[in-house]
# Entry
Amino acid sequence: MKSEPGWSFQYHSMSHLIGMSAGPILVALAIGGFVTWLWWYGQAQRNTQGPKRWPLIGSTIEIVLNWDRLHDWMLEQFSDTKTFHLATMATVSPLPSIFTVDPANVEYILKTNFSNYPKGYVHCERLRELFGMGIFAVDGHLWKEQRRVTSYEFSSAALRDFSTVVFREYASKLVSILARFASTAEEFDLQDLCMRMTLDTTSKIGFGVELHCLSPSLPTVPFAKCFDDANYISFYRFGDPLWRLKRMLNIGIERKLKECIKVMDDFTFDVIDKRRKDMAAFTNQPKQSDLLSRFIDLCTDDGGISIYTDKDLRDMILNFLVAGRDTTAVTLSWFFYMMTCHPEVANKIVDELSTVAQSPAQHTGEVTEETIVEFSKLLTYETLGKLHYLHAALSETLRLYPAVPIEGKEAAEDDVLPDGTFVKKGSHTGYVPYSMGRMKFLWGDDAMIFKPERWLENGLYQPQPLFKFSAFQAGPRTCLGKDSAYLQMKMTAALVLRFFALHLVPGHPIHYRTMIVLNLQHGLRVTAMPPSSVHSSPNTLE
Ligand code: HEM
# Structure
């Protein structure tokens, strides 16, 4: 078709105008509009309580920028509200999460409407390889049944007595290693030693097996290494939107996870197999006290057939290891860090030990195997129970440095929390022990000060309300190892502080690593010295 000359001219003129002059104007208008909207949105956000949010990406940028100090960033978000929404990119989580520090909400989630707040699919799926169908990664009737069997075993006096012996033995080994370092004034990582000790003790109590992580040469134990790596990689999945793809392709850290799980499974199934055979062969031998033997024994029906498969037993014992190992070790590490900052508190603990030692509490002179053993024999379940100040100092540590700093559930149905917050079905709904432990409205103006005295009345330990001090969770899923953890921590703290004053290596950085368990990112590098004159340092966290 022939075109009209006039039209052609007009068309070219318009396109010329748009292309040469209107284009930049439109672009400038668009940028101007966007910047104005950004400014307006930013202003509107200033009045929003909790973290600032942006369309599509939510608070992702702020989270990424603050990742290394996530718990303190969360604490800042609670400065003007007790509950907030936290949105991330839809690929990570399609619904905003809800976080609260309000004890009424915490009680509602953990107890009053417990059935509406299971751990949920997202949580359990990520931990499946490591935890299997163990207590940490199941909900509903599977959880109920395991809780029933585990609580029965955990409350037995026999297990408590066995644990006391094991805790004493390994805390003494730890002190012997400290004595070696002290004799040459050598620096060492006390967090690493605590981790070794608690893996040895949980393995001994769980499997009845010696892992020798705390033997004098401090060796690398393959099971221990794989256990650490598998823990880290499983929890890393919570922040990695590509983990399923990596698992499918069997690449990167997902491949590593698979290899680690295999090493742990081979070891565990081997122990289970041997134990079953031994128990079947030596029926007239005294019963072994470790959990594995007790589970096999408990769950064998009258015809001698085990009700639990090897896989069930593997899951139960590995869950026990994960539950008790890192939590206790990191709490002890933060406690010892507090002792380096507050020698006056360490001194009071040592004074209290005189109630146990019936002699001057602080050991002077050479630290030998004999002196360690002699003192350790005085530390029994009963005598440790009398150490109220030590108990308070450990609780105070957990208030400020809870081993599990953030806890989350998944709403099964739409709901409304006691403070009026609407919860949409499927929302991640969590509470934050790290922030709760530092809130002035809960602990008073001195919330940031390490002060064991706040737990004492007339010298006796006073527990705080469970939904205010939430380090062990509360309600039907409360920690089953709380008493056992205090027992081990008191045993270890009493033995270490009796013989040594700890000093932080000057310049050693103290910071947590953002993980499911609040460990010290760079460890706890200290020197141990014979107790000497003690100087107080400022009694604050900063
Ligand atoms: C200072 C040490 C400890 C702290 C702070 C602690 C804290 C916790 C927390 C916060 C939970 C809830 C976790 C969740 O559901 O996501 C929990 C659960 C649990 N803890 Fe502990 N724990 C400690 C030591 C131990 C020890 C030594 C054991 C074993 C002897 C243990 C056994 C368990 C078990 C079996 C559960 C699962 C309860 C359930 O789901 O019904 N914990 N613990």
Q: What stands out?
A: The radius of gyration is 28 Å. The longest helix spans residues 5-46. Residues 1-15, 533-540 have pLDDT under 50 and may be disordered. The longest strand covers residues 525-529.
